[in-house]
Amino acid sequence: MTANGDSPGMIDETVEEIAEMQTHSSSVVAIKAARALLALSDREFPTVEEYVRALERNSDALRRANKSHATLQTTQREIVDRIEESDLASVAEAQTRTEEVVAEVVERVESAKVRAGGRAAELLSDGDTVFTYDYSSTVVEALEVAAAEGVSLTVYCAEARPRHLGRKMARTLAAFENFDVHLIVDGASGTFLPECDRVLVGMDCIVDDTLYNRVGTYPVAATAADVGVPVVVVGAESKIVGGGFAFENEERSVSEVIREPADGFTVENPAYDATPTRLIDRVVTDAGIREY
Asked: What does pLDDT average to over the chain?
């Protein structure tokens, strides 16, 4: 084992996974990143100070992997801050304390998803038709709760190109016998939204009067508003952030859009878009329901 500042393999792999968006749900991103820091518990450090510096460096690498994930940013900062503020007598004590803090953070993120999903499930009635966009583990939680309570739903899942995360949503929901699941192309949203009772989407974060979520959310919300279908956003209360957090969009790989060379034209592939909260009916979190 070494005592230098190099990242352990688990942390390097998690950084790459987050950067490549192989982990899609922001709550899953935060949990994976928090647990990745536990790789430092298997290493030797000469002093507590060296351990804390290594923790800071690796946490910073995880945060830089996706600066737009509010939950990733806040949970990583919390873990480092709590270790720095602890009165630690030895490296072993610091590593044990890190394990305790990570466990607390993970439990809180997971329980927030369950509570938010449970609240959102209460809005669903038997026979409803629901429109979903992208893949949100909190939206899945809400629909799972509804399914467990015997609620029958028709669900339209937009593909959410270019990553086609809607396909993952459709496959997940198709496992429930009382759901009639339809996968549609994004361009057909306007065709099917008038048939829906509500739109259910997750959130990366809400900053002031703007919802940031997977690109394509804005046109869905705008179309839903035009045809009178309420948009319900589901997520952890910690994703509603104020001053001090500057959302940074990300330009994704051209290869996600086109495989052939882009000769004579530019390919734009932003990861997220900004939806004005005036297009949202309500936001359901683990702390309660906010109406807009």
From this structure: 92
pLDDT in tens, 130-167: 999 999 999 999 999 999 999 999 999 999 999 999 99
**Which residues is 210 bridged to in the sheet?**
207, 276
End-to-end CA distance of the chain: 54
Per-residue DSSP letter, 7: P
pLDDT of 104 over the 80 cut = yes
For the chain, how many residues are written?
292
Which residues make up the CATH 1.20.120.420 domain(s) of the chain?
9-115
If we measure between CA atoms, which residue out of 177, 173, 218 comes closest to residue 199?
218
Sheet of 240-241, strand order: 240-241, 205-207, 210-214, 272-276
Question: CA–CA separation, 165 vs 136, rounded Å?
Answer: 9
Of 1.20.120.420, 3.90.180.10, 1.10.760.10, 1.10.630.10, the CATH number of 9-115 is 1.20.120.420
122-291 has CATH 3.40.50.300 classification: no
CATH 3.40.50.10470 location in the chain:
122-291
Residue 3 has pLDDT above 50, yes or no: no
Binned at pLDDT 50, 70 and 90, residue 178 comes out as very high
Cβ burial of 8 (10 Å; 0-12, 13-18, 19+) is buried
Rounded to 5 degrees, φ, ψ at 108 are -65, -40
**DSSP secondary-structure letter at 269?**
-
Q: At 247, list the tokens.
A: 């959302």
Cβ(127)–Cβ(100) below 8 Å: no
Say yes or no to pLDDT of 9 above 90.
Answer: no
273 phi and psi, to 5 degrees? -135, 170
pTM for the model: 0.82
